[in-house]
Specification:
Order of helices and strands: HHEHHEHHEE
Distance between the termini: 24 Å
Mean pLDDT: 86
Structural class: alpha+beta
Number of strands: 4
Helix content: 40-55%
Oligomer: single chain
Strand content: 15-25%
Strand order of the largest sheet: 1-3-4-2
Shape: globular
Low-confidence stretches: 1-25
Radius of gyration: 15 Å
């Protein structure tokens, strides 16, 4: 298991170095090319999954809608947690968004870091790494909400 994780980490570092967007020295990271952020995350996740022997995932519109809704809602609540301001759970949100598959997990983050740094932090924790590498996953939703001060609320949802 440790060897697999080291291979995954090496693959991620290589991909992250190639994909991490540049920021001005000393400035706050600002998301500018939203479509590229999603593609970079999808490519990174799939590289990690392949290194772990798991099938690749595809971006899913319904899961992404649920992730976007939750990212904005976390900002409104000003706290990173898995429940919506209306008491909704991740399962409630993906169902509301029209996803008919099974929810496998949700990763969230409150940060000023870019998507590659956020993914790296998720990989360091066994619970969030398990969501990313779940062998049953076939779909991924990924979105964020960036506040005017630069704080970013990230949400990733995996489904089968």
């Amino acid at each position: 298991m440790k060897r697999v994780f080291l291979l995954i980490a090496a693959a991620f570092v290589t991909l992250a170095a190639a994909c991490t967007p540049a920021t001005d020295s000393g400035s706050t990271y600002r998301i500018r090319n939203a479509d590229k952020v999603q593609i970079r995350m999808l490519d990174s996740v799939n590289a990690l999954r392949q290194a772990a022997g798991a099938q690749t995932v595809q971006l899913n519109a319904e899961l992404t809608a649920a992730a976007a809704t939750h990212s904005r809602d976390m900002s409104v609540q000003n706290r990173p947690w898995h429940f919506g301001s209306d008491g909704s759970s991740p399962l409630d949100r993906v169902s509301r968004a029209g996803y008919t598959g099974s929810l496998l997990g949700e990763n969230i983050s409150e940060t000023y870091e870019n998507e590659q740094q956020t993914l790296s932090a998720w990989l360091e924790r066994p619970a969030t790494r398990a969501v990313i590498l779940d062998p049953k996953a076939v779909n991924m939703g990924f979105s964020w909400f960036q506040e005017p001060n630069g704080k970013i609320w990230w949400t990733m949802v995996m489904g089968s």
